[in-house]
């Protein structure tokens, strides 16, 4: 059975949500971040770091396979349950668009959010640069303009169905809201629309 290590509404929530969409059986292990390495429930514990060298979440285990990147885990879960349509049966062009948007979320949209996290609490104190917060806000606004241009005015980001990219976008906007970035109405609506899905609501009860 799939085992997923995660923490609250962090990036691991993407994977938990995908598991709920597919209805695959799984075990969820709530994992503490940035806590003492001696704590057996900590992502810093030596046993956990044998699975995830960086001591981060998510980590997925299944039959000897260990995955530690949320996008790879999302795709793996989707491929384990092709009937879910999370990776739809679609044309090359649709897949190219899906890859492009997923890449944009990871390399452009979420980076300013992570910059804020790193320079507020994640990096060791003496590595933090408070001025980075202004830069992060500026970069996020730039990414939003691009996304507004890239994303079609339709219910789903690609194809005519809910896919891994919709999970990525909704979780990333939820992250932006939690981190108090300005999110325009269009993307607030996107977050709300997808978080209202029963699978997202079930995932929230598991994560919290
Ligand atoms: N590229 C990784 C990033 C994973 C990551 O940075 N996870 C954060 C939570 S969202 C974490 O575990 N941080 C712990 C830390 O920085 O100590 C992914 O997308 O899965």
Note down, in words, how this protein is organized:
The protein is α+β, with helices and mostly antiparallel strands. The protein folds into 2 domains: 2-86 and 203-207, Glutaredoxin (3-Layer(aba) Sandwich), CATH 3.40.30; 92-197, Glutathione S-transferase Yfyf (Class Pi), Chain A, domain 2, CATH 1.20.1050. The model has no long low-confidence stretch (mean pLDDT 97). Helix 1 links the parallel strand 1 and strand 2 (26-30). The protein contains 8 helices and 4 strands; from the N terminus they run E-H-E-H-E-E-H-H-H-H-H-H. The chain is 55% helix and 8% strand. Glutathione binds at residues 10-11, 33-34, 55-58, 69-70, 122.
Sheet with most strands: strand arrangement: 2-1-3-4
- Ions, cofactors, ligands: which are bound? glutathione
The CATH architecture of the largest domain can be named as: Up-down Bundle
- CATH topology-level name of the largest domain: Glutathione S-transferase Yfyf (Class Pi), Chain A, domain 2
What's the CATH C level of the largest domain? Answer: Mainly Alpha
Largest sheet: 4 strands, mixed
> What's the helix count?
8
Task: Report the mean per-residue pLDDT as an integer.
Answer: 97
Instruction: Give me the count of strands.
Output: 4
């Amino acid at each position: 059975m799939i085992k997923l290590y995660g923490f609250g509404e962090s990036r691991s929530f993407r994977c938990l949500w995908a598991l709920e969409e597919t209805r695959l059986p799984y075990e969820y292990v709530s994992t503490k971040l940035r806590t003492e390495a001696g704590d057996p429930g900590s992502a810093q514990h030596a046993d956990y770091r044998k699975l995830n060298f960086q001591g981060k979440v998510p980590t997925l285990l299944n039959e000897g396979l260990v995955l530690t990147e949320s996008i790879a885990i999302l795709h793996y879960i989707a491929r384990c349950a092709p009937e879910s349509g999370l990776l739809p049966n679609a044309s090359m062009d649709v897949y190219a668009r899906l890859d492009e948007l997923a890449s944009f979320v990871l390399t452009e949209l979420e980076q300013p959010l992570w910059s804020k996290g790193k320079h507020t609490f994640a990096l060791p104190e003496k590595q933090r640069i408070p001025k980075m917060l202004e830069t992060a806000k500026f970069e996020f606004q730039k990414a939003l303009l691009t996304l507004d241009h890239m994303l079609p005015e339709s219910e789903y980001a690609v194809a005519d169905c809910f896919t891994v990219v919709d999970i990525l976008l909704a979780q990333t906007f939820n992250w932006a809201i939690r981190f108090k970035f300005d999110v325009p109405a269009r993307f607030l609506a996107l977050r709300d629309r997808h978080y209202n899905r029963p699978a997202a609501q079930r995932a929230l009860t598991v994560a919290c």
